[in-house]
Amino acid sequence: MLGSGAGAIIALLVRNAVAHTKNQASAKAGQAIANEAKAAAAEAHRLAASLERDLAQFREKVAQEYATVQLIDRIEERLVGALDRIGARFDQFLLRQGKEK
User: Fold this and answer.
1) 8-30 pLDDT per residue, tens
2) What sign results for the dihedral spanned by CA atoms 78, 84, 90, 92?
3) How many alpha carbons fall within 13 Å on the CB side of residue 37?
4) Rg (Cα) of the chain, in Å, rounded?
5) pTM here?
């Protein structure tokens, strides 16, 4: 009987050692997963910051080009006005030329 009790104790110790080893392996695997998640989160933050910078630059460029479009619109209005005045003068010239003949 003493032998079977010692065998049971040894079996219990072996079972506990196996369980402890499995727990350690699970903890290491969990740590590895956590480390990968941290790295992925850091990369996501880096990409997000990069995208924010790109978006800010794009907005600035759009704002600059929009101001340029406004300037072009004003120049176009001035050119159209100048062409209208030249056209009116040319019409007057043609009228005078017609009256002289």
Assistant:
1) 777 777 888 778 888 888 888 88
2) negative
3) 6
4) 43
5) 0.47
